[in-house]
Amino acid sequence: MGMVITAAATALPDRSAPASVVDLAGRAARGALARAQVPASSIGTLINVGVYREHNTFEPAMAALVQKEVGINLDYIADPEPAAGFSFDLMNGACGVLNAVQVGQALLDTGSTERLLITAADVHPGGDAQGDADYPYADLAGALLLERSADPDAGFGPVRHYTADRPTDVEGYLDTATMGRHGRTTITVRREPDHAERLAEFAARAAADYAREFGIDLDETLVIGPSTSADGVGAQGEPHTASPVLGYLRAMDGVRHDEDDHPHDHPLDRAYDQFLFVSVGAGPSAACALYRPEGR
Questions:
Q1: By its UniProt entry, which InterPro entries does this protein fall under (predicted)?
Q2: For residue range 198-227, what is the model confidence (pLDDT) as tens digits?
Q3: Residue 124 half-sphere exposure toward CB, CA atoms < 13 A
Q4: Distance (Å, rounded) from C-alpha 54 to C-alpha 190?
């Protein structure tokens, strides 16, 4: 334990221009920094885990472009500290955020960085998910700001990964045989008709296995699982890599309203001392991590 979430934020496109990963991730990151009231210069490492990008861009690393957008360590002469402003992409589909948490734990444990920013943004290659009825995901970004806590009992526990013993029923790829001159603005996402039910069952098994390994009482734990919708997105699509960020914000919002006894659209029926993050996606693969907020 020891690495806690100090702030989180999401961002949606404003539709005045085609959606951009760099813009959305940058806005989510700046939102998290503003909530934490810390400057961009305090970020030691940025990890970007988004998968789908405008124009199917893969080089240069999107993390470097997001770093520039947020304004993290843009002058290496003024700030030559090697641990300041280091950024990289880490892609593992829907499990990317928890992969980044696992890397962040190692970085903080070794003293390589003091504050970590995770960005997760996906946009349709054509810049508008609403314009492609066969594309299932929303244009959406999320950001988590992480740092070490003085409370040894707070923060993330171990991250565990699970794989199923069957072929994947979810694939996203660029179909080079049919893309023609529109290849930069198209993507093919193939999902079997019952994929949602099968992934949900796999996520439940992964959560149960994690709970058994670490002796967790799931009746006393709020499970933050894969989201099927994003606030404000409407019928645009499902959250993808930003889903854990969205789930965390919903959970914390529910906890706050439960504690304050205020009305809320999705109130929790009780306060929870710990959360279990569960992500699941193509592979099929799943990832789980226990999280205890500070002061609970």
A1: Thiolase-like (IPR016039)
A2: 888 899 999 999 999 999 999 999 999 887
A3: 25
A4: 19
The answer to whether the beta carbons of residues 123 and 20 sit under 8 Å apart is yes
Say yes or no to pLDDT of 13 above 60: yes
Q: What is the CB-side half-sphere exposure of residue 71 using CA atoms within 13 A?
A: 7
What one-character-per-residue DSSP string does the chain give? --EEEEEEEEE---SSS---HHHHHHHHHHHHHHHHT--GGG--EEEE-----GGG--SS-HHHHHHHHHT-S--TTT---TTSSEEEE---GGGHHHHHHHHHHHHHHTTS-SEEEEEEEE--TTS-GGG-TT--B--EEEEEEEEE-S-TTSEEEEEEEEE-SS--SEEEE--TTT-GGGGGG--EEEE-TTHHHHHHHHHHHHHHHHHHHHT--GGGSEEE---S--TTTTTS-B--TTHHHHHHHHHHHHHHHHHHT---SS--SS--S-EEEEEEETTTEEEEEEEE-TT-
Weakest-pLDDT range from 89-98, 128-137, 276-285? 128-137
Decide if pLDDT at 30 tops 70: yes
